[in-house]
Amino acid sequence: xxxxxxxxxxxxxxxxxxxxxxxxxxxxxxxxxxxxxxxxxxxxxxxxxxxxxxxxxxxxxxxxxxxxxxxxxx
Length: 74
What we know:
Layout: H1 27-44, H2 50-63, H3 66-73
Helix pairs in contact: 1-2
């Protein structure tokens, strides 16, 4: 299966209200995020940049973190 026809873990992006946060990334991580953004755009047919993807990636990560979920349930 080619990458263009496979699904990415991060699906199509919902429209959300945002706030601005400045972060520092390693050069390697920035390059990987840009590569992921390009693949996401190719897969779902909508242009997207790495800065747009980061909040969705973090939200997805936290939603799957069992330890974090346990603290929210209390």
